[in-house]
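Contributing new records

If you add data, match the layout below exactly. Sequence lines come first and carry their own label; structure lines follow with theirs. Keep one chain per record. Anything else will be rejected by the validation script.
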Amino acid sequence: MGKQCCRGRPKIGRLTSRFLPCRETSSCAHIPASKTTQSCPSCQTHRCHLPSPPRCSVHDGKRPRALFGRFSRASAVRSLACTSRSAAPVILKIEVIKSERVPSSELPIEERLARLEWLERVGLRLARERNRGQILETVLTEARELCGADGGTLYLRTEDDQLRFALVQTVSLGIHLGHGGKEDEIQFPPLPLYHPDGSPNQRNVATFAAHARRRVHVPDAYDASGFDFSGTKAFDAQVGYRSKSFLTIPLEGSDGRVIGVLQLINATDRNTGEVIPFRETDQDTVESLAAHAALALDSRMLLEAQGELLESFIRLIAAAIDSKSPYTGNHCERVPVLVEMLAEAACGASDGPFADFKLSDEEWYELRIAAWLHDAGKVTTPVHIMDKATKLEAIVDRIAEIRLRAEILIRDEHTSMLEAILAGESREIAEARYQKAKGEIEDDLAVIERANLGGEFLLPEVAERLKQIARRTFTERGVVRPLLDERDLENLLVARGTLTEAERITINGHMVETIRMLEALPFPRHLRRVPEYAGAHHERMDGKGYPKGLYAGDLSIPARMMAIADVFEALTADDRPYKKAKKLSEAMRIMGAMKRDHHLDPELFDLFVRSKTYLRYAEKYLAPDLRDVVDEEALLAIKPPPLDLPSRAERDQRRARFLPEYEARFPRTNRAAPK
C-alpha cells in the first residue's frame, strides 16, 4: 500500500495475483483479487472507491476479503463458490455487461443531477406518505419506470420469517395485484427464508438477497446458475411470458433487519423495446431508492405496530370493564360496532345533511379509539351500584332483611294470638284476627317486592301505599323499629329504574372520570378529539344531558353518533339487570320519542333509520324473536319542536366545566404524574 489518496483510502497500485480467504470459515473457496489498476477520478492516480465485492453466499452476507475493480469496457464473468458444513455449494454468476457497465460517477453531470433530483422528489413523497400501501406502490412503480422494467414485485417479511407478496406488477400482462394495500388478493405462496432444518433458504433469488443483504442482478433467469427459477418458468409457460433479467434488492430497516425485498423484472431498451440486463447506473439509483423506501416503510410499520399495541391495550381495558359487570355484557364491544356502522352510512351519503361528511384514515382511527374508551370511567364506579338490579340492593339485596322483619311481625301476631287464647279469648276470634293481620303483612310484603324490581314508572298509588307500609313497626330485642327505614323508603320510591338520585350521580359520574382520565393522557395530535367524542355520549341536544349539559351546537357529529349507538345498544341489550330486552320496534319507538324530545340528533336518527343501520345491527346481535317489523315512516315523520339555545357565553361556560352536582360530587384532585 502506498500513500493516502484524496478520498482518504490507501492507493491501490498494481496487485499481484493473490488469494484472500473468507472471514467466516476456512472452508470457503478463495477469491482472487483484481489485477487491474484503476485511476481515482479526483486525484487521477489510483481509484480507491472500489465497489463492494460479492458477499459469501452462505454466511448471511459476510463479505469475502477481496478487492474487485470496476470495468467500463471489458466483459468478464466471475464465479464465487462457497461451502460450509450445513449447505451445499452455491454458484453465483455475476456478469458485467460491456455496453452498460458505466459507473454512476462517469455519467454526464446533467444526468447525475437529474437522478439526484428524482431521488429527492421520490424520497420526499415517501417521507410524507402515511399509507403503507401507497408507499409500496410508489416505490415499485417509480423503480420500475426508472429502469424501463416491465414488471416487479415487493415482498414484505413476516414475523415467521417468510417473504410475503405485497405488490405485484406486470405491465404487458395487465397484472396489478395488491393495489391500495389489498394484499389479500395475491394468492402466491410466501417464500420461506429458512428451510425446516433451520438452514438459510438461498435457492430463491429473493431469499438469497435477503440473507446476503446485497443486491443481486441476474441478466438471464434461464441461464442462471445457483438459483431456482422453476416457479418463474412455470408462470412463463402458463401465461406465455418470458422472464429474463432480474434485479433484486433487500430493504433494510433502521435496525439493520431486512424487512422486505424489491425485485424488478425485464429491463427494456427504451429505443428498441428489447429486454436487456439492468444498467448498472439504474441499479445504483434503484438501490438508493430502496434505502429511502426501507426507512419510510420501517417508520410506517413501526407506527402501525405502536397503533396496534395502543388499540390492544384499549380493547383490554374495555374487556375488563365488561368483565367487571356481567350485567353490561359486551356493551363496550358492541357500541364501537354501531358507531362504525353509523359513520359508514354518513360517509356514504350522497345527499342530505351528511353529503359532505367524510372521515380520513386517521379520523376513522380516532373515532374507533373513542368508541372503545367511551365508558373507561366505569373502572371507578362501585360494582354494587353498577350492578344494582333492585332498588334495595346495596352490597347485598336488603329485601331479604325486610322479609325477615315481616316474619318477625307475623311471629309477633302469632304470639299475640296464643296469649289471647291463654287469657280466655275464643280461639276462633283470635285465629281470625291473626290470619287477617298475617294477610295484611304478606300483602304489604308483596307490594314491597314488586316495587323493589324497578321499572319505567312508579304509580302514585303504589308510592302512597309504600309510605303507609313504612309506618308499620316491629319490636326487636325490646326496641321498636320501622318495617321500612328512611333509606329503604327512599330506594323504593325511585320512580324509574333502581337508582336513587345520589346513586344516579355516582354512576353518571363515570363520564366525569372518563373525561378526566382521557384528558390526562398525552394523545398525539391526530387523536386529540378522543376525550370529546368519548365523553359526550350522554349529552342531549337540549342541554339536559350530563356531565356538562352541552347543547346541539357544541356537539360534534361523531359525539352525536356515540349517543345514538349507546342508547340503541342499551335498549336492545338482553343482559341488563333492571329490565328485559326490548323488541326492535319498541326500542325504535322509544328512540323516536327521544328524537322528538331533543334527546338525540334528529338528522342522525333519520340517517340511522333510512340507512337501515339499526336492522343490520339487529340481524347480527339480536335474537330472532326480538327482530320484529319497524314502522320507519312513522319514525321519519316525527318532527321535534324548535330548540331555543342560550347565549354563546352561557354555552361556553358549560363547555369549560361540569354541571354543579358533578363538580360537588367529584372534586378535582391534583393527580401529578410520577417523575
